[in-house]
UniProtKB/TrEMBL annotation:
Sequence ranges of the WD repeats: 206-238
Boundaries of every DDB1- and CUL4-associated factor 12 beta-propeller domain copy: 102-453
Name recorded for this polypeptide: DDB1- and CUL4-associated factor 12 beta-propeller domain-containing protein
Keyword terms of this UniProt record: Cytoplasm, Nucleus, Repeat, Ubl conjugation pathway, WD repeat
Family: Belongs to the WD repeat DCAF12 family.
UniProt-listed Gene3D superfamilies: YVTN repeat-like/Quinoprotein amine dehydrogenase
CC terms in the record's Gene Ontology section: Cul4-RING E3 ubiquitin ligase complex; cytoplasm; nucleus
Species: Callosobruchus maculatus
PROSITE patterns: WD_REPEATS_2 (PS50082)
Main localisation: cytoplasm
Cellular location(s): Cytoplasm; Nucleus
Pathway(s) where this gene product acts: Protein modification; protein ubiquitination
Pfam family, one: Beta-prop_DCAF12
InterPro entries per the UniProt record, alphabetical: Beta-prop_DCAF12, DCAF12, WD40/YVTN_repeat-like_dom_sf, WD40_repeat_dom_sf, WD40_rpt
Amino acid sequence: MSRTHMRPVFGHKPSCCVSQRLTERLNRIRAMKLELTRKPEKPEDFIMYDDSDSEEEPYYVQKEILSTSYNFVDYVRNREIQNSKLSSIVSDYGSRHILTHEMFRETPISLGNMNKVFCSQWLSDRQVVFGTKCNKLMVYDVATHKLDQIPSLISKRDILSNEQQQCGIHSVQINPSRTLLATGARNTCDIAIYRLPTLDPVCVGENAHRDWVFDMCWLDDEFLVSGSRDTKMALWRITPDLLESKDEVPRHHHVQSVALKECRAAQKVRALTFNKGYKEIAALSLNGFIHVWDAEKFRQKLSKKLPSAQENVCLAVQDSGLYAIGCRSYTLLLDSRTLQPVRKVSSRYSGCGIRSASFQGDVLTVGTGLGMLMFYDIKAGKYLESSINSSRAVVLKASKGFVFPDEEFVDNIQNVKYVPAIYTHCYDSSGTRLFSAGGPLPATLTGNYAGLWQ
């Protein structure tokens, strides 16, 4: 959970320096090696062997172990004296503990007659921003339970022509310094930039895409990449002079893309993500390909056909570089170095399409088309198990939300147990609260769902 390098207050050794810890560590290593030497019923595809059979660890390793405390109390005390360089904490410990002990409880959020929530992000510890299919950008306050609508930004093509494509806000992204928010404009083919935390308008990016913008990703605090159904990817730059406007009444600028390139071998770019470790942009297209771009040169490097071409709609990347792609019946894990499949994570439920995916440390969270959130432990290679009942995997089941009762709902959906699809989910900075949202899976149905788990 936590790791703190201790220094002696009195004498030559810190309080955590107990030789018995080395014996216990050695016993754990022996048990682990014994477990690895057992022949599994089904051999693994990839096996790594230790380069040394010696169990004796070097002296400097033993010294480091004895001077390191894994006690959370020591971590808190070290933080109190503002000595954070000597301590660290596992980022996903809070969420993992709450999940395995089944402590999450859902608070349903009423969204009125809005239609399907497609994307969301935490703005702060008490505000969540999300975009809907009915082209509304909303901010929800988790403390007061109030909803505020942010006005959509109008591009020049909206003013000059009668063709206004308002087909939903599909992406909401915040830059690394959390000073800018990128999302869709009133015209779904354009992008809008807002200043944080005030949400004042900054600019509209226009005339790059001819079809809906499905996703975006920030490369740094200035550069942004957008992907569209027209198979093109655009590079935008939000320069500092755009942020220096001192008008009493907030107004927005109109900017053009720095570069616009076609994503070769793609049919409709569906999802984007930025791999910081390898400085790559990964793009997912609806024809079952993953495409890798060089982020520094904005140049497409390669494309690879995925094992499944059905409903590849979401893409996430772990800090280590592991890609997760949500498919119709499983989540595909890809090695970012080779783009070779590492594992196919079955969804456990038949007909359960993966609609959203995210990484929280070593835990992969997936939102499904059957109103469930599931949690996969990457290191353990299995779904998170409940500490209360080890035979049961951790699953969060969403409430029903709202569905507009049209003829199709009355004739077909009402006769079976209705559950919403989880199109988006996001953790707060502490990892102890989870916002999930979505709506009816059929495209013809109108409705919504949103819930706060805490």
